[in-house]
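Support case: user asked for a sample of complex input and structure output to validate their parser. Sending the pair below.
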Amino acid sequence: MYEIVSRRELAPNIVEMKVAAPRIASSAKPGQFLIVRTDPEGERIPLTICDYDPSQGTVTLVTQTVGLSSKKINDLQQGDSFADVAGPLGCPSDLLDLPDEKLQSMKILFVAGGVGTAPVYPQVKWLRQHGVDADVIIGAKSKNMFTYVDEMRSVGNVYLCTDDGSEGFHGMVTGLMKDLIENQGKRYDHCVVIGPMIMMKFAALATREYGIPTVVSLNALMVDGTGMCGACRVTVDGQTRFTCVEGPEFDGHKVDFDEAMRRQNMYRNNPKNNPETHKCKCHG
Amino acid sequence: MANRIPRVAVREQDPAIRATNFEEVCYGYNNEEARLEASRCLGCKNPRCVNSCPVHINIPAFIHEVAEGNLAAAASIISADSSLPSVCGRVCPQETQCEGSCVLGIKSEPVAIGKLERFVGDWAIENASTLPLPEITPNGHRVAIIGSGPAGLACASDLARAGYDVTIFEALHAVGGVLVYGIPEFRLPKERIVAREVEAVKRLGVKIETDVIVGRTMTIDQLLDEQGFDAVFVGSGAGLPRFMGIDGENLNGVCSANEFLTRANLMHAYDPDYDTPIYAGKRAVVVGGGNVAMDAVRTARRLGAEAIIVYRRSEAELPARAEEVHHAKQEGIEFRMLTNPVRINGDENGWVKGIECIEMELGEPDESGRRSPVAKEGSNFNIDCDVVIMALGTSPNPLIKTTTKGLETNRRGCIVADEEGHTTREGVFAGGDAVTGAATVILAMGAGRKAAKAIDEYLKSK
């Protein structure tokens, strides 16, 4: 069992949890993910690691309620436990392979959207620890949906935008990216985009115009998450790749996003995914 | 004469009923049936069945004890060579191994060795509390086992008996490897058989830690250098599912048999009390002819789909166990032989609506000795379906290879290991599907036991 040592709501339906998982905390690297299972009847759900603390033996997860299993996760309280937390899974960010001098010569832009903001944080934090100040665009529908802004400000240069203009730049992340590059004289050698699939698609289209190499982190459906089932396959540069062992990060200019979005919704209308109709044992 | 007795038929669930449930198909023998069937064995002086058994169980000896009613003695004879008789009695391809070379089979039907092994194994599970535990003298050495499938369980069990302090690390949340994620409940009951075989291994003092992905959570180097293990056995199993590389394979409604079976077996998706969804559609086509294909097609049938096997060779070449093919046909599975998919077609929303196939004919034998299928030009036709399940085997998971220095793999990505399980890295041993590619439970179990012997010799000589 893996105890939730702290829990806080970051925004409506978005919850952060620190979970006791000492082995994972010691081996986790930026860019990797975990599989969690709330209870013996639960699904195995992949979640990107948002932070890790080897000295406390904890990993941090941020989850947005969208269906049955994410609701079960977010219903857990401090002191409750997950039945299973397994990881870290997937490949660490490619940036970790570069020598510090190379990294310090690069201008790196992160683009984070919605619940994808927290997973950007460990990468930006890692870069700061290696002497790199990255720019981070954080986009949200509205001011009250921002997460991890203060954390991100402590490790990088943050630029905010909202769809409704309630805070920061009025517009989408692609609009703010354009503003930074075309009006504020910014130039970037590398871009990392993490967020909803649709946002990653359009952010990657924009960076392609500017010729900026771009990495995206895909949140494909998974069952085992360890390289066995193939549910997470995506098409990258015309080849089928497995997100769980070859990803989750891929070249954003080569991912077939339309296919990835279609595959992500494969079980959306399954009656089991609806907390109203699916009654599992644990909820009586 | 003993051999005039016909082979004792085994009781099974009615096909029409079992096609709608996940209960075990075969009920197995009762005591009287087992003793009668055992009495058919001729007790050959040079038993061909023993040579055809991958782990050389002393078959005539255990069958003799069954005939005499000495089940504890029978169990003890089997346990000298096999750690998982209840499992192997259910899933071994007996018709190409022991039973395939039984002399009774020349003129009539072979002794039902598999069913007798299962009978003894199940008796041993039921009576485990009455059987004496072996005396174990701890020797102070620690061994880590990666994977809790048949290879890992067998290796752990032998090492524990020899006095080693053994820990199994399992990546998934459940113990048993392919026995829990791959083979369906209706062939191998999880609670009644697998869980209790695992309990038997734990009673020997073996520790099992789930949710540990060796290569990620901890590396083999960490196990040896930091965690204090003296040797490691890698029984991590097969890996990534293979696909055909044809158009439409990433449409919604197409999955690997591994995914389909993992949802059903490991995640209990067929049970409404569990959260994991599964989709078998109205008409499911399973591509392949092995045991995994049979398991997938029969699972789809049980979930209410009309279910079809598409296989590129003829029925004679089906690699699946004869009993599974027989059971599948009884359950109403349609077999389309000499048929190969060329494309999967989707509707406007990206869901499968059919699979285009081409007729095949058998040509010259290939390197496997089987006649190789050749496409008949222009014979393309369509099968309407809303689900396609690919059961084409697996290629090894790259995780352990890429995170372990000095561990060589061959060009197929399988770990290089000799007959005894020695790899190219000192102190690291391997066996089962991780070495051979997808094979059988009994071969994996046998490899685990050989490696246990090699590990014992290695650590004693250190």
